[in-house]
Amino acid sequence: MPFQTELVDELNILVQFSLSSDMTGIKVHSDADPRLVAATARLYDKKLITAKDGGYLTSIGRDAVEHAKEALRILKSNP
């Protein structure tokens, strides 16, 4: 099953979160790219983040970010 555009947008939001502190969040402003605003709202609906416009990671959101960043690292590495 290939990645749909909506999932890629969600992954792009997730990898913006820092894993160095649970107190580091993000804010996606209402005038941002509508695709990113919608992706952030979907992540909230999925309970991966604490606010519809960003906020902080939930426990499962943190797991998702760890996996997304690891997949990105692997895919960007040179063999």
Give an account of the 3D structure.
51% of the residues lie in helices and 11% in strands. It has one domain. It contains three helices and three strands, in the order H-E-H-E-E-H. Helix 1 packs across helix 2 (34-45). The two termini are 25 Å apart. It is globular. It has helices spanning 5-14, 34-45, 59-76, and strands at residues 26-27, 49-51, 54-57. The longest helix has 18 residues, at 59-76. A three-stranded antiparallel sheet has the order 1-3-2.
Q: What are the SSEs and their pairings?
A:
Elements: H1 5-14, E1 26-27, H2 34-45, E2 49-51, E3 54-57, H3 59-76
Antiparallel strand pairs: 1-3, 2-3
Helix pairs in contact: 1-2
Properties at a glance:
51% helix; 79 residues; three-stranded antiparallel β-sheet; mainly alpha; globular; 3 strands; 3 helices
In short:
This protein is mainly alpha-helical and 79 residues long.
What is the SS-derived class? mainly alpha
Number of strands: 3
Structural domain tally: 1
Main sheet: strands, sense, barrel: 3 strands, antiparallel
Low-pLDDT parts are: none
Termini Cα gap: 25 Å
Mean pLDDT value:
94
Query: What gyration radius follows from the Cα positions, in whole Å?
Result: 12 Å
User: What's the shape?
Assistant: globular
Strand order of the largest sheet: 1-3-2
